[in-house]
Every structure is written in structure tokens, then in C-alpha cells.
């Protein structure tokens, strides 16, 4: 199998929309949004997400077939004024899980953050029940910071587990 990952451009909006909507349908409990909400997006909405200078969306391919996606953005609620990036939106087709492809996702997003001026920290979180995310975060050097109760997009309440990774910081 030949796997690759690349950052999407605005011209890739249809491919992005297709895989994002499939992800929201397949695994609705792991996202902060819903298929119902995003299926109403217009072309301009999808393009806007891919044009943003403060974020990146990456697509994972098996040969030329998209099989997953992941994103990274500047954390807009960062009290340190744009020194934090947040990982979001990771998803893989079920048949490709457990094959180490999360390494491609983490490498692409962390490298993006390292190359973004001023970023010193990367954060990520997951539902407490999402053990695959927990293990992937820790495998890539993220350290637990806190847990808090959250009402998720499906209306359920479950703890959100948060992690951070410091980058570009001289000791």
C-alpha cells in the first residue's frame, strides 16, 4: 500500500467536503460538529475553511484515493495571543485504522505548527472514551493537562481530556 498526506488547497474543496461529511456520518461522536450542520454548507463555506491563513487541512491518501483527513489551526481563544495551535478533525476510513497512519497526521500538523511564526504550544483534546486518540496523543509527546465535563454535539455529556506539546521554545 502506498500512503501519502498533503495539505489541501481551495481547489480541493469538493474532496474535503466529501471526506468531512463521510467522517461526520461514520463517527459522529468524535467531532465537535454534526453532519446535519455541515451538510448545509455552501461551496463558499468549504472554500473559506481551506483559504484560512491560520489553519491547514491535510488529506491522507492510499495511492490517489482519499481515506482520511486532519486539521490544525491557531487557537483563537488563546490568552497568549496566537502562540498556540490546536489539532482537530482527525478521521480515517475504518479499514485503515490501526495501521500507524496517525503518525502521518501528527507529523504534518506538528510540522505546520513549527513553521507557523510564533507558535510555542500545540494542544489537542478528545472524549474520555476515545482511547485511540489518547494513545496517539501520548505516542507523539503530548502531555495530559486537564479534564473537564463537556456537552458534545450529540447532546451527551462526557469528560473532555486535554493535552499539550511545547515546540519552538528554547529552555
Structure description:
The protein is of the alpha+beta class and 171 residues long. 29% of the residues lie in helices and 34% in strands. It has helices at 13-26, 35-38, 43-51, 102-115, 131-139; strands at 3-7, 55-62, 65-74, 84-92, 121-127, 143-151, 157-166. The longest helix is centred in the first third of the chain and has 14 residues, at 13-26. The mean pLDDT is 92.
What is the fold's blueprint, element by element?
Elements: E1 3-7, H1 13-26, H2 35-38, H3 43-51, E2 55-62, E3 65-74, E4 84-92, H4 102-115, E5 121-127, H5 131-139, E6 143-151, E7 157-166
Parallel strand pairs: 4-5
Antiparallel strand pairs: 1-2, 2-3, 3-4, 5-7, 6-7
Helix pairs in contact: 1-3
Overall geometric form: globular
In terms of DSSP E residues, the strand content is 25-35%
Q: Write down the secondary-structure element order.
A: EHHHEEEHEHEE
Strand count: 7
What would you report as the Rg, rounded to the nearest angstrom?
Answer: 16 Å
| Amino- and carboxy-terminal Cα gap | 41 Å
Described by strand count, sense and barrel closure, the largest sheet is:
7 strands, mixed
Number of helices: 5
Order of neighbouring strands in the sheet with most strands: 1-2-3-4-5-7-6
Low-pLDDT residue intervals, each spanning 5 or more residues? none
Helix proportion: 25-40%
Query: Which structural class do you get from the secondary structure elements?
Result: alpha+beta
Mean pLDDT over the full residue set:
92
Which descriptors would you attach to this protein?
single chain; 171 residues; alpha+beta; 29% helix
Amino acid at each position: 500500500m502506498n500512503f501519502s498526506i498533503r495539505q489541501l488547497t481551495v481547489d480541493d474543496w469538493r474532496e474535503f467536503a466529501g471526506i468531512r461529511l463521510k467522517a461526520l456520518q461514520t463517527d459522529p461522536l468524535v467531532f465537535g460538529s454534526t453532519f446535519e450542520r455541515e451538510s448545509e454548507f455552501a461551496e463558499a463555506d468549504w472554500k473559506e475553511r481551506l483559504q484560512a491563513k491560520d489553519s491547514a487541512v491535510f488529506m491522507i491518501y492510499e495511492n490517489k484515493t482519499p481515506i482520511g483527513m486532519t486539521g490544525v489551526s491557531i487557537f483563537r481563544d488563546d490568552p497568549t495571543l496566537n502562540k498556540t495551535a490546536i489539532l482537530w478533525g482527525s478521521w480515517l476510513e475504518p479499514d485503515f485504522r490501526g495501521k500507524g497512519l496517525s503518525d502521518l497526521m501528527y507529523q504534518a500538523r506538528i510540522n505546520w505548527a513549527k513553521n507557523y511564526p510564533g507558535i510555542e504550544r500545540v494542544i489537542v483534546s478528545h472524549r474520555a472514551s476515545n482511547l485511540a486518540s489518547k494513545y496517539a496523543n501520548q505516542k507523539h509527546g503530548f502531555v495530559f493537562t486537564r479534564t473537564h465535563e463537556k456537552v458534545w454535539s450529540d447532546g451527551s455529556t462526557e469528560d473532555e481530556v486535554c493535552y499539550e506539546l511545547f515546540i519552538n521554545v528554547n529552555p
